[in-house]
Amino acid sequence: MATSRTPRIDPLTLEVVELIGTVVTRYYDEYEQAAGKHTLTGAQARVLGLLSIEPMPMRRIAQKLKCEPSNVTGIVDRLEARGLVERRPDPADRRVKLAAPTELGARTARELRDGLDDFAREPLGELSRDERVALRDLLRRMLGAG
After folding, report:
1. What are the residue ranges spanned by the domains of the chain?
2. Average pLDDT over every residue of 85-101
3. Are 58 and 76 within 8 A, CB to CB?
4. pLDDT of 70 strictly over 80
5. pTM for this structure?
6. DSSP letter string, 90-123
7. Do 132 and 72 contact (CB within 8 A), yes or no?
8. What whole-number distance in Å separates Cα of residue 20 and Cα of residue 15?
9. Integer Cα distance of 75 and 70 in angstroms
10. Rounded distance, CA 142 to CA 41, Å?
11. H, E, C per residue of 74-97
């Protein structure tokens, strides 16, 4: 008869998991603060940040943010009402609408990134380029993308 055992987690693994949780919490806290300076929610700021990299359909935004497409539609509606985002036909498939930042939206996204000084620049700035590459590669590997 097979018995089910809980895998033993060593102290180092527990510490790494705790540190990852702390980094994630700090990232979201600082993102919310930066977003608030632009009277945006954290979710609106994250969508705007994604779109500043490349325009994309709602479905893809939802996949990247791990949420329902209907939630993304509401967020994009509010960003569009503020003149930060526009919907435009996808040149590859005119039946699909892409959400894309307006000029104001792209500028706001840059300002949001600049507002993440404490999180993005201080701790990562203390790492050498090789250390940042190693960290990136380890995170990709953990996520199955490496």
Report:
1. 34-123
2. 94
3. yes
4. yes
5. 0.74
6. ETTEEEEEEEEE-HHHHHHHHHHHHTTIIIIIHH
7. no
8. 9
9. 9
10. 29
11. HHHHHHHHCCCEEEEEECCEEEEE
Measured distance CA(86)–CA(105) in Å, rounded: 9
Specify whether the CB–CB gap between 71 and 62 falls below 8 A.
yes
Show the CA angle centred on residue 34, arms to residues 139 and 21, nearest 5°: 35
Q: Which fold has domain 34-123?
A: Arc Repressor Mutant, subunit A (1.10.10)
Q: What is the 8-class DSSP label of residue 8? A: P
DSSP 67: S
**Helix-helix angle 58-65:42-53, to 10 degrees:** 120
- Mean per-residue pLDDT for 108-118? 83
**Cβ 52 vs Cβ 106: under 8 Å:** yes
